[in-house]
Each structure stands twice: as structure tokens, then as C-alpha cells.
Amino acid sequence: MLQLPAATAHRVAADPSVRVLVDELACCALEVGSAVTTGLLIPELDAHGTARITAVLMSGTVTHALAPSVLAQWQSVPEPKIAIAVGACASSGGPYWDAPTVVTGIADLLPTGGFIAGCPPSPSALIEGLLAIVGPR
Amino acid sequence: MSVLRRSIGLVEQECTSCLICVRECPCQCIDIERHTEQVSEGRRPRTVHVLDAFAIDFALCMFCGICVDACPTDALLWSETTGLAAQQRDQLVSGRADLALRAGD
Q: What was the ipTM of the complex prediction?
């Protein structure tokens, strides 16, 4: 099984009760990184701090070869958690949806609680979508 | 015209259901249903396409704008609408009403 790099931990600046783990699978992860440089996401310093919910951002294309690793990483995150598909590839397979080696969205693998459109979603679209999905009601 | 590629809108009265956007879309995220009608006004009878359904699947869309560029009647345009996110994948499929609303902003 392929080894994924450890998911990086952040908090949403507008709502620090949301812990964000970023699974950096492909190019969308770079735009998630941009959200950090613009201050919309802040790096989490205290890894054991409590959070209302952990949002696992799956950002990038998932291939069948990568799928077991993605699933294992999702299962290693403690509850309460929500999986969020960031961008076209994680939501639906994106421009590669008809390729035989590509999973047509992470919803095929695991219970997905949110989908953020974009290729990639801009930092503002990412945070707006994230808060719409897991923000206070 | 917006340069911030946030969303796409449709001006329905400009759309001739020609399917150019459907064919040009690299992700095949646009779905059009149409039928033909006979029009007898004018010098000779003609057959025109009438739009039945228009949907863009924003879970697939790359926001590349090829459809906006390719549309010969400028029926598709960039929209300022943000926040294309949903808890269910189906909710990211925008139909006629959503797309018409976005064309207005």
C-alpha cells in the first residue's frame, strides 16, 4: 500500500472550533496552502487541542492505486469527523472521470459529508464552502 | 464581465440549444435536452430547436470557461455567485432556474 504523507493540521480562522486536516493528494492541495498564506486557515500548533469537529479535506485526484491509503488515513482520524471533497476530482473524478484508473469521487470510498466545487476552489471559495458545510447553524 | 471564475450563468432567451457548449466542454459537465418545433411564420417553414432542460454539474466543472468562450450567442457567462458547496453531490448540479438566477448578478 502506498504511504501518504501525514495530513497537515489547521484551524479555520473564522471558526477555530473546526479542525482541518488536509489530505494532500494532488494540485488542489496547493490552493489549500494558499488559504494558509492568506490567513483564512491557521496552522494548528497544539495537536491535542479539542475541536468541535475535524474536517478532513480530500484535495485531489484519487486513483484506484491510492484508494486504500486514502481510506486508511480517513479511518485513522478520530470522531467527530467529516470528509469533505475539495475540487472536481475529489467530488466526481473531475476531468479524469472517464479514466479507468480514477475513482469517480471520494464518495465512492467513504461517507462524504460535503463537496466544494472548483478546479481548484479558490481560498475564499474553500473557506466559504467549508463554513457552509460545518459552520455554526 | 467577471474575471473571477466563481460560477457560470445562462441567459435562456439567448440560448439556441445548439449544443456547442456540450461538445466543447472538456469534462462533459453540461447536459442539454431539446426538441424541435416547426415554425410557419416567415417566407418558408423552418424547424427550430427548443430548450427543454439545461444543467451544469459543478461537481465536474473545471471552471475553464471554454463554454463561455464557445457560446456563439453569449448565452453563457461568468457569474459572481460564490459558495458552490453542498452536503450532497446532487446539490452541485445547477438546473435552469439556478443558472438563470446567476446570469442576473
A: 0.85
Identify all chain B residues contacting A88, using CB atoms and an 8 Å cutoff.
27, 59-62
pTM for this prediction:
0.88
Domain that holds residue B13: 7-103
A132 vs B26: CB contact, 8 Å cut-off? Answer: no
**Which residues are CB-contacts of B79 (< 8 A; sequence separation ≥ 6)?**
B2, B6, B7, B8, B9, B102, B103, B105
List per-residue pLDDT tens for chain B, 105 residues long: 445 668 899 999 999 999 999 999 999 999 999 999 999 888 899 999 999 999 999 999 999 999 999 999 999 999 888 778 999 999 999 999 888 888 876
User: How many angstroms away from the CA of A26 is the closest CA of chain B?
Assistant: 15
Domains defined for chain A, CATH in brackets? 8-134 (3.40.50.12280)
